[in-house]
Amino acid sequence: MKKNDSKSNESIFDLKGVDREALLYRVMPRFVMEIMRKYLRLHVEGAENLPKEGRALICPNHSGYSGFDAMMIAHEIRKATSRIPRVLTHHLWFITKTTAVPASKLGFIEATTANGLKFLKKNQMVILFPEGEYGNFKPTSKAYRLEEFKRGFVRMALETKSPIIPTIVIGAEETHINLSRLRFTKYLRGVILPLPLNVIPLPAKWKIKFLDPIYLPYKPEAANDKDLVYDICFDIQERMQKAINQELAKRDSIFL
Length: 256
Prior knowledge:
This protein has one domain (about 50-250). The protein has a 7-stranded mixed beta sheet with strand order 1-9-6-2-5-3-4, with helices on both faces. Strands 7-8 form a two-stranded antiparallel sheet. The protein has helices at about 1-5, 10-15, 20-25, 30-40, 70-80, 95-105, 115-120, 135, 150-160, 170-175, 225-250, and strands spanning about 45, 55-60, 85-90, 110, 125, 165-170, 180, 195, 205-210. By secondary structure, the chain is of the alpha/beta class.
């Protein structure tokens, strides 16, 4: 018994090769997410662009303040590929055990470069929001206008030779309404906070579209080329903004 007691939580949950995230996904009721799919009348396009194996960096626009977009994207990836992606997440999730434990079991990891590289090098799919917290917590009055992308995701892709799969989400901006972004809280434990109007998600129609993968034809050392990294980042943001604008133009209504 002592030998068993000495096992780490990781090994205890690693039952027959099933890691903690996979175990949780099998045990917890997946129908909850399916109910949300129906509630949001979610339509998905481009799932064929998701790899069944190997590393990939999934880069969506960020919206709705709650992180609900991350959960829905991860769920759709699991459905399409039978793989559980890791989600680089705001460190606010990891301040207390109350939120850190369920977050880690859902595949959420703190958004650091080291974590992103770690899982990409393990041939995992990683979801990273290039806008960061500024995109997630932007007021709804600025809906679908991308905040300036942080360039770390380009460096990660270059260093690990990972394809980048730009992803757009339509509908999340209206599901959770954010009135403002409280900038002064940046000085409180490094946190920026939203000023939400609603907690219960509104039934806006959602669309998630996985765009064509981008394969960067450069050596890993190119990650140190600031000008190149900037140009790639700018180009991807332009592509995503154009795709968002096109989808908004095609949308006939928000809630009906």
